[in-house]
């Protein structure tokens, strides 16, 4: 029996250790932000001229900006948001009712000379509530993205991902959105605030991210599955 208890405790410890090991936050590439496969669109050499080649652009008087599927574009991250909200509510209500009976069937019912059918009711309710909320975010940096599609009106569909490995940790930036070609500067750079339908995600993983996250048991007690 003692051996069975030891085996049960050992099995429980293994389960707990495996659960703790699976909580490690690792940053993996997201397929939704992966570059498109250009192997099928490789330019094949065609002997159709000594200067001009079909499938290649020769821009003599234009800036070198992204305008084709597969071109790269630099996005300057310049995001800053600030929000605040406050609310205050005060209510008060007083109620008072007097029930007086002077006579009942010609007489005034009393109890020890005290009319017991004469009563009064009073009530008072007060409520006071206040709330404040404030939030601010800031994100600066730069990320290179790829043009994955071009809409019929010429708008560029871009997406990209950057993963930086640091000491015992990693950070990532994922971005997608729509870019107007006229918003791209001559240096092939566009500001993130110019992106339409922008999706910008910043996060990290590793030892520091684990230290800032709660364990699985603590998350269970705060989850809807905990009945108490």
Q: Short description, anyone?
A:
14% of the residues lie in helices and 44% in strands. The chain has helices at 2-22, 207-211, 216-221, and strands at residues 72-99, 110-111, 114-115, 119-150, 156-166, 169-179, 189-191, 196-206.
Question: What do these coordinates show?
Answer:
- A hairpin with a 5-residue loop joins strand 4 (119-150) and strand 5 (156-166).
- The chain has 3 helices and 8 strands, in the order H-E-E-E-E-E-E-E-E-H-H.
- The strands form 2 sheets. The protein has a 6-stranded mixed beta sheet with strand order 7-1-4-5-6-8. The protein has a two-stranded antiparallel sheet with strand order 2-3.
- The chain has helices at residues 2-22, 207-211, 216-221, and strands spanning 72-99, 110-111, 114-115, 119-150, 156-166, 169-179, 189-191, 196-206.
- 14% of the residues lie in helices and 44% in strands.
- The chain has 228 residues and is mainly β.
- The protein folds into 2 domains: 6-40 and 51-81 and 137-221, no CATH class; 86-132, no CATH class.
- The model has no long low-confidence stretch (mean pLDDT 76).
